Design the sequence.
DNA sequence: TCCTAAGCGAGACGGTACGTCTTGTCTTCCA
DNA sequence: TGGAAGACAAGACGTACCGTCTCGCTTAGGA
């Protein structure tokens, strides 16, 4: 019972993906209409509805590739350590962000993409927790999920800060800072004698 | 040369504010039309446009009151300390969130309110930085704004986690946890011998 | 290279035409909204704008059919004579008016249809002049167009008078009267000895 | 029980009259809003409603002056003759039109003023009939009112033609032409041997 | 290699919300 | 008391976008 997907279908979906990704880099997500997408993709508006039910559906489908790529990259390097336990580990994330700078900047800062924003934190937190369970980290007296969210929130915030300030530091530095802020706290991270 | 604001105007704006705040607690922000708002407020649709240019404008105006309240509360208690430097300080935030639970839950989790989400982090970070400057905290070798964002992201994430898990801990506990995670880091916060 | 007009389009336009013609017979033209027309035509309001830019455009389009009918009828009978030169000729006009009584009554008397009113005189005058040129009528010392307007004004007025007085005379009588008033003048038309 | 009309009221009405008369000379009657009129008159919009119920009411009130003037002028000169019985009589009409050229041009040709257009013919016809009755004109076998309308339609048409063609003839010539067309008919008016 | 089901373009249409415009009413305040 | 100022309800306007549909044409891929 083979699925035999028409090559035209694949082509059409690719065109739609490329169109929406190109468009969100250009202007506000909410201002983009399905008409705009299909025009850019050189397709008929009705054709859109043969493949997706909404802009959101297409966007999620289009972004999946990117995030899956990153997650696979991370999981390959995680060796029984909590995700922030190793600066090198986090460094990959910042490097990946730097490579896909335009996309991340858009996704993290655009108004209409709010639901992506919050999913991202949730997504990172879930990933963190998964890794912590695998690494059998004990977190008493705090629950593991709280720690996961703490780190996810911090990571998200640092990435946002980094992009908004035009990446003034190297990925290494950012990763090391995150590592320190999370593991040994702000007091130590800021050096002796501070505060 | 007094401004002489018509009492009707104030009344109308209050009705609109109450209407939109009530509606976002009931259903998806994007699904709310201006027609819905004015109907709920018992006003004519055209009247809306005499006061606001869009749903967003009204929402921001309506939320301001709440957040300003919180900020004033915090600033009154901050005595030359960084905002997370004192668990009691943060406790106020969690208590405030608990009191306005329904609103925060909606604002932090609803899809269409994404731009609020990211503004909130930005807002907290800016507040943090302001306080750090006032407290003359030295942050070498990390820039103060990075620390601000780190703490803001963490606070945001912990509030989200807290609300999503139906507030399983007291505001005191949450504040103390945040304090520890931020100041002395995850290792210490999680107790000796962990990891 | 045929035009390929969608049958649905024709159907839609017919529905709109019928709707507006029915409505102007019922009530004041100005009081009719596009909403009214589309409701009567069982169509969506937006659909109206796919076909016409305004009520006026639709009305003109709808009336054209009627007037073209009359003009064709007249031209078929005109044999090198000026249009009022033959009572039988004009008789057709009055007969046609009688048959489409309700429509003419409305078009000639309704306030909002003023621009139709004046176009009608202009329209008749132009027709007259065209016929006079064809018939090579010499009009010295008066210009042909002045004569055309004179007769058009008279025809228009007599039709109005006829309808307003509930058609007290037969089309034949009206046509003969118009013929006499125009060709031999009021003195002769009113019989010998008058005045 | 004197009426004590405030001088301010008269002033206000005059301002409104002048405003609407000025405006119809400038642009389409329908495009003129009450807002426009009151702005031009340097009055508040609400004030309009203290004096008139609609644009139409104001316009009729404003035009009355002009037409009454003309009628008085005509009646003063009519000495028991039917109104078209004397070329000199009609000449006054054309002269009056020429003097108030801009106004007549507007009133007769503007779309939205259709109801004025048809009232004008009705008005002239009624005047004609009144004069015919006074002059005890016998019109057998045609009814007097039919004759009145015939002449009114012709007069209206000739005035329209005259204005549309930028008044190529003198009032005297127009009056004489109308006289001939109406009294002795087109055949005679166009000279011997024509047709 | 044909043929048949699918993908797709074109575009009409119903539906919904938009933001704007004009009207008419009302209230408050001033001269 | 007449008018200015302006808030508001009411409702039509023309536009924009959506999602659905129908009608053909083209073309891929199984027979």
Sequence:
């Amino acid at each position: 019972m083979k699925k035999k997907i028409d090559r035209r279908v694949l082509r059409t979906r690719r065109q739609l993906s490329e169109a929406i990704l190109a468009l969100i880099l250009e202007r506000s997500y909410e201002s983009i209409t399905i008409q705009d997408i299909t025009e850019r993709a050189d397709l008929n508006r009705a054709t859109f509805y043969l493949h997706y039910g909404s802009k959101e559906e297409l966007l999620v489908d289009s972004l999946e590739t990117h995030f899956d790529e990153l997650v696979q990259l991370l999981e390959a390097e995680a060796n029984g350590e909590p995700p922030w336990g190793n600066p090198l580990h986090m460094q990959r994330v910042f490097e990946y962000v730097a490579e896909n700078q335009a996309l991340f900047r858009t996704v993290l800062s655009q108004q209409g993409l709010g639901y992506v924003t919050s999913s991202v934190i949730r997504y990172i937190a879930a990933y963190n927790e998964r890794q912590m369970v695998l690494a059998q980290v004990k977190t008493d007296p705090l629950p593991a999920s709280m720690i996961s969210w703490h780190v996810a929130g911090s990571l998200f915030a640092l990435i946002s800060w980094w992009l908004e300030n035009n990446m003034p530091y190297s990925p290494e530095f950012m990763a090391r800072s995150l590592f320190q802020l999370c593991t040994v706290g702000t007091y130590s991270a800021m050096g002796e004698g501070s505060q």
